[in-house]
Amino acid sequence: xxxxxxxxxxxxxxxxxxxxxxxxxxxxxxxxxxxxxxxxxxxxxxxxxxxxxxxxxxxxxxxxxxxxxxxxxxxxxxxxxxxxxxxxxxxxxxxxxxxxxxxxxxxxxxxxxxxxxxxxxxxxxxxxxxxxxxxxxxxxxxxxxxxxxxxxxxxxxxxxxxxxxxxxxxxxxxxxxxxxxx
Length: 182
Hints:
Strand content: 15-25%
CATH superfamily of the domain at 121-182: Head domain of nucleotide exchange factor GrpE
Structural class: alpha+beta
Radius of gyration: 37 Å
Oligomer: single chain
Strand order of the largest sheet: 1-4-5
Largest sheet: 3 strands, antiparallel
C-alpha cells in the first residue's frame, strides 16, 4: 500500500478525483469578478468624494484662513472711522495746513485699509434701511418710528462685515418698531 507517487501526482482519496464542473467554476469566477468590480467602483467613488472634499477644504482655508486676523483688524478700521467722525467740521476747516495734511493722511489710510480688506474678501455690510436679518445683524434696541415698516434697520451703531459667504462680525443695529409690517 505504500506505493511511491510520481512527482506532480495527487494521492487518491476514497476514489478517483473528480473534475470540478466547469459551469460551477465559471459561476464562482463571475461572482468573484462582480464582487471585485463592485469594490473597485466603490473605492473610485470614495476617492472622487475625497478629492472634492479636499479641494473644498483647501478653497475654504484660502478664503477663511485669515478670519481671526481679519476680525482683529476690524477694531483698527473702527478706530480710524471713529477718529475721523469725531473731528468737528469747523475744526477741520480752521485747522492749520500741517493739521489738514495729517487729517487727509488719516483719511487716505482709512480708504487704503478698507480697499485691502475688500481685496482679501472682507466686505462691509450696509444694512441701513434694510429688513432686519438675525444672521447678519445684532439688534441692540428698538426705535419707535411709524414712517418705516417694523423690523427695518433704522440705525447702525457698529458696522458689520462678511468674509466670503460668512459673517465675520454682525452689524450692531437699532430696528424700527411701530410701523406697518414689512
